[in-house]
Specification:
The protein is mainly alpha-helical. The chain contains 15 helices and four strands. It has a domain of 224 residues. Helix 1 packs antiparallel against helix 2, helix 2 packs across helix 12 and helix 7 packs across helix 8.
Length: 347
């Protein structure tokens, strides 16, 4: 027996992740040549919304909680960084962490009440939380800008003497967003690979059995809720910096609804499924909106078809295809039985 360990085969998600990473690394230089500079910003936006969809997926796909309140943490993150710049005269990083901290703190408080409920009751209470803060933002228009939005000026990310790194540089902004989103996905991946991630799945599958082996369904759901709120807050901060404004619309529950749709189309319970769904539907939106004002009808039909014929989402279809292919390879490489070979020789 050979003492050296055999090399581990890359899984589909690993291969997909490496392919996406390779594309994202060269996108700022490749896309302007092939398409247009506009698509560099679209790709940056896709990464932000993919992180938001991943926060929805962490709750539903891995913990079994359908949330329509992720917009609350997204919007609070956006307003946190905006207030830091405009009212507290903060530099970039203190305002950045203020936004992430405010959104996460909101999740910490809201989760105390929300995760006591499950099924449609949980979905309803998350909508209620989102609506409460939305109407508060609309009602304090002099502070938040309401639905009209609150524009902001973004200071440099780093400034040393005459040298500075600013988000006004499109290429730097792209790689900055990529780095933060990559951190979010890496953190989620590490958590899901840990015993905590397995606890999420155990509670999703059967919370009564999970409690019998010593897990507290309430604590597990609460941790998942806060972590999902952190990821949504991170996405909200990034989008505010990207769009250069914050608005009460970020807090509205329909923003969460879009995240749910992206997750379902891409594949709930998979790491990169929500990113695939986000990319597909946003690119379709950008392309179809040029030719037809009712483009959402086509998007709606696509969503219905995916939900009807591929309930596991696009990533589920890819996984099934890979599983069938590998099963076919194993079957073709399997040696014939001895009896069959002897009969063939006698003939």
């Amino acid at each position: 027996m050979n003492g050296s360990a055999s090399p581990r085969r890359l899984t589909l998600q690993h291969k997909l992740g490496l392919a996406v990473l390779a594309f994202l690394l060269v996108a700022p230089y490749l896309l302007p040549v092939v398409l247009d500079d506009f698509w560099v910003n679209v790709t940056a936006e896709l990464m932000i919304w993919s992180l938001f969809a991943a926060s929805v997926n962490l709750l539903f796909g891995y913990t079994g909680l359908l949330s329509f309140g992720q917009a609350l943490f997204f919007g609070m993150g956006a307003y946190g960084v905006a207030f830091g710049f405009e009212y507290l005269d903060m530099s970039f990083w203190p305002a950045f962490f203020l936004g992430v901290g405010l959104g996460t703190l909101t999740a910490v408080v809201a989760g105390i009440f929300a995760v006591r409920l499950t099924w449609h009751y949980f979905a309803i209470i998350t909508v209620v939380f989102s609506l409460i803060f939305y109407f508060m933002a609309v009602g304090t228009k002099e502070l938040t800008g309401g639905d009209d939005g609150m524009p902001l000026s973004v200071p440099p990310v780093l400034k040393v003497g005459s040298f500075e790194l600013s988000l006004f540089d499109q290429t730097f902004q792209y790689y900055f967003i990529m780095a933060i989103v990559g951190f979010g996905f890496y953190l989620m991946w590490r958590v899901l690979q840990s015993p905590l991630g397995r606890a999420f799945v155990a509670v999703r599958e059967n919370d009564m059995r999970a409690s019998l082996i010593g897990l507290s369904p309430y604590k597990v759901r609460y941790i998942s809720f806060v972590l999902a709120g952190f990821l949504a807050s991170l996405a909200g901060v990034l989008f505010c910096l990207f769009a250069r404004y914050a608005t009460a619309q970020y807090l509205f529950w329909t923003v969460s609804g879009e995240g749910v749709v992206w997750m379902i189309v891409g594949g709930a319970g998979t790491l990169f499924g929500p990113a695939i769904g986000t990319a597909l539907l946003i690119v379709l939106r950008e392309e179809l909106s040029v030719y037809w004002e009712h483009y959402l009808l086509i998007v709606g039909v696509i969503v219905i078809l995916v939900v009807t014929f591929a309930p596991q989402g696009i990533m589920g279809l890819i996984n099934d295809w890979v599983a069938r292919r590998e099963a076919g390879k194993r079957a073709s490489s399997k040696p014939e039985p001895v009896a069959a070979r002897e009969e063939a020789g006698d003939g």
